[in-house]
Amino acid sequence: MSTTENYHGSNTHRVDEFKVLGELLNEIYTNIIRNAQQAKDKFQTTLREKEHERVKEKLCSRDNLFCYLALRKQNISDLQLRLAEEGLSSLGTLESHVLVGIERVLKHFGIPAPPTNASGLCKARAAHY
After folding, report:
1. Which ranges of the chain does DSSP label H, i.e. alpha helix?
2. Which long-range contacts does 124-128 make (Cβ < 8 Å, 24+ apart)?
3. CB 86 within 8 A of CB 21
4. CA-to-CA separations, 63 to 7, 20, 36, 39, 86, in angstroms, rounded
5. What is the mean pLDDT of residues 55-76?
6. pLDDT at residue 20 above 80?
7. What are the Cα distances from residue 101, in Å, to 14, 29, 43, 48?
8. Nearest-5° Cα angle at 29, 61 to 90
9. DSSP 3-state assignment of 122?
């Protein structure tokens, strides 16, 4: 095999690995949303003024906590190393905006985030991220 063939072969392998890494992150993202929605369903709010800004902020904080707990239930150590090797966020500082942080990394893989309210989870504070 010539050097050129070897180079192109290894390039194809890197592209495939990059694609698999994006798919893995997307699968984790989907699991986080599903698990956070299940947790949210168990803890229905009794707050009546859902449009009031302070109440909305509390609901967003609650949803983000559910997402963070769902993220930490998964073993992502290998994924974190692989993301860092690609020069991407290792997901180590997502505490304050879990879904938005993962969505930003997914963009590097060409994977679009679902519409803002598709998950039913609040991401309103995302503008401050």
Report:
1. 3-42, 53-72, 77-85, 98-108
2. 124/56, 124/57, 124/60, 125/57, 125/60, 125/64, 125/96, 125/97, 126/97, 126/99, 126/100
3. yes
4. 46, 28, 7, 9, 29
5. 90
6. yes
7. 24, 10, 24, 30
8. 90
9. coil
Cα dist. 109→15, 29, 45, 67, 129 in Å? Answer: 10, 13, 36, 21, 20
The one-letter amino acid code at 92 reads G
CA dist 8 and 14 (Å) reads 10
Digit-coded pLDDT (tens) for 42-57: 877 666 555 577 777 8
Give the span between the Cα atoms of 34 and 86, in whole angstroms.
Answer: 27
Contact 54, 125 (CB under 8 A): no
Q: In the structure encoding, which two tokens stand for residue 120, read together?
A: 């039913």
C-beta neighbour count of 86 within 10 angstroms? 17
